[in-house]
């Protein structure tokens, strides 16, 4: 399906004409940046020269020359019947999705919509953040380049981010890592002994489970806090756990959010039982309908460890995560972190520091894009009879309840229709069950998700017909 950007929309994306720059170069550079930032998708048809000169108030020569520069630099091509179409030089690289246990084994191509991944496109302005970071690099190249706890300006920016959210934090409490999973792994290595029990809500994020298992922990499943807080407290009391892994903000995969009362209650249970709470905040900035109306978990439980990441807010390719730990644990976690590697890449740390200073969180444009994608994927409710979902106010996925135990069968059928899904069992603490559930991330662009809706609807029709045929025998 071809996408097209209108002259009016392109004018809004380009912004005002930069003074002192030739008009053709301003136009060409502006479109190039939009492609590099992912704001104009590969294959998008640009407005005709006549449409654009009328909208921008420039000459036809200006538009013709700008489009020519884009073609010469590999950012556009002339397609018969479609006019000028933008492109990523060399084409977009296939893959690059979040490596869940399932997707790591399945090859993907450009004709497949991969819904095993819940990570959005890069934030607008990422390219400029890299340019700004490169300009800062000479200050660091003179030294050895090792910052095992993180570049100071990034640790300061992260600490300020917590302080702004009502959790006083100094930079010494921040440890920068190569992504959120590395942050969790370092925390587990510092706090847990082999076979220590750890409470985890089920369903949960599969890669976190793998990290716990790798640390030798004994995972103890519990219901979602939002559904049965009393039962969770009972599991903590009865199992003698040392740790609880929690995701109170837009839980993956369900999207639920703990209320302030639920946070306070679980925090009291942690304190009373001597449990170390480990809080995964990788989704905390992905609110869509309004900010979370609850204080961060660290405000209720000062002794907890909080893990964050740039992946869901800015870009998955920014392999930068962080740990906010109480002073009593920072030394142990820092030592554990040094057994894994000697620090995250300096350039990427400077990119994240720049984005935290200038943008802070998910951009409004990214937020609107994700909301549009969520709306497209909610169309499954009309296309797949019996499917039900509680629409989350944020996060990056929908957790559908199916009318029958068909999750695995649906995954198999969907692949034949060009869509990769992860079965509900992948999110179960014990890796079994949840056959009435399926996760569908809405982090992809709306065009891809429309294809996914068609493919999933066809797959569901196939699965339903098979079940009816078997039932009638």
TrEMBL record:
Query: Can you name this protein?
Result: GntR family transcriptional regulator
**Record PROSITE patterns:** HTH_GNTR
Q: Which organism is it from?
A: Flexivirga endophytica
Keyword Hydrolase carried by entry: no
Q: Which GO terms describe its molecular function?
A: DNA binding; DNA-binding transcription factor activity; pyridoxal phosphate binding
- HTH gntR-type domain residues are 21-89
Family the entry assigns: In the C-terminal section; belongs to the class-I pyridoxal-phosphate-dependent aminotransferase family.
Q: Does the UniProt entry include the keyword Membrane?
A: no
The record ties this protein, via SUPFAM superfamilies, to: PLP-dependent transferases, Winged helix' DNA-binding domain
Q: Which UniProt keywords apply?
A: DNA-binding, Pyridoxal phosphate, Transcription, Transcription regulation
């Amino acid at each position: 399906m071809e996408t097209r950007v209108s002259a009016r929309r392109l004018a809004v994306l380009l912004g005002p004409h930069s003074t002192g720059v030739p008009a053709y170069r301003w136009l060409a550079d502006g479109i190039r940046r939009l492609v590099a930032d992912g704001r104009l998708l590969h294959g998008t048809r640009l407005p005709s020269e006549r449409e654009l000169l009328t909208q921008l108030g420039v000459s036809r020569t200006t538009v013709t020359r700008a489009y020519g520069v884009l073609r010469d630099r590999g950012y556009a091509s002339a397609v018969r019947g479609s006019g000028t179409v933008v492109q990523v030089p060399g084409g977009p690289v296939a893959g690059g999705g979040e490596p869940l246990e399932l997707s790591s084994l399945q090859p993907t191509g450009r004709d497949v919509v991969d819904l095993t991944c819940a990570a959005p496109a890069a934030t607008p302005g990422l390219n400029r953040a890299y340019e700004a970071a490169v300009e800062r690099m000479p200050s660091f190249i003179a030294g050895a380049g090792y910052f095992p706890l993180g570049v100071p300006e990034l640790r300061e920016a992260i600490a300020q981010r917590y302080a702004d959210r009502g959790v006083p934090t100094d930079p010494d409490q921040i440890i920068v890592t190569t992504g959120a999973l590395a942050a969790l792994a370092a925390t587990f290595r510092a706090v847990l002994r082999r076979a220590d029990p750890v409470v985890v809500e089920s369903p949960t994020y599969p890669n976190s489970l793998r990290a716990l298992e790798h640390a030798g922990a004994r995972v103890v499943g519990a219901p979602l806090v939002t559904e049965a807080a009393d039962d969770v407290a009972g599991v903590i009391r009865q199992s003698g756990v040392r740790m609880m892994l929690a995701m109170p903000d837009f839980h993956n995969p369900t999207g639920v959010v703990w209320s302030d009362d639920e946070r306070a209650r679980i925090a009291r249970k942690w304190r009373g039982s001597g449990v170390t709470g480990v809080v995964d905040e990788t989704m905390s900035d992905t609110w869509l309908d309004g900010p979370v109306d609850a204080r961060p978990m660290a405000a209720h439980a000062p002794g907890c460890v909080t893990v964050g990441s740039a992946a869901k807010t800015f870009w998955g390719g920014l392999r930068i995560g962080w740990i906010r730990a109480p002073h009593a644990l920072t030394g142990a976690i820092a030592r554990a972190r040094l057994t894994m590697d000697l620090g995250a890449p300096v350039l990427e740390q400077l990119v994240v520091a720049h984005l935290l200073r200038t943008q802070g969180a998910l951009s409004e444009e990214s937020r609107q894009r994700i909301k549009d994608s969520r709306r497209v994927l909610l169309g499954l409710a009309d296309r797949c009879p019996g499917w039900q979902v509680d629409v989350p106010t944020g996060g990056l996925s929908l957790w559908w309840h199916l009318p029958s135990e068909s999750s695995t069968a649906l995954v198999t059928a969907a692949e034949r229709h060009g869509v990769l899904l992860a079965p509900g069992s992948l999110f179960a603490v014990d890796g079994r069950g949840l056959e009435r559930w399926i996760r569908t991330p809405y982090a992809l662009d709306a065009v891809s998700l429309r294809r996914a809706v068609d493919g999933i609807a066809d797959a569901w029709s196939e699965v339903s017909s098979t079940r009816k045929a078997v039932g009638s025998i």
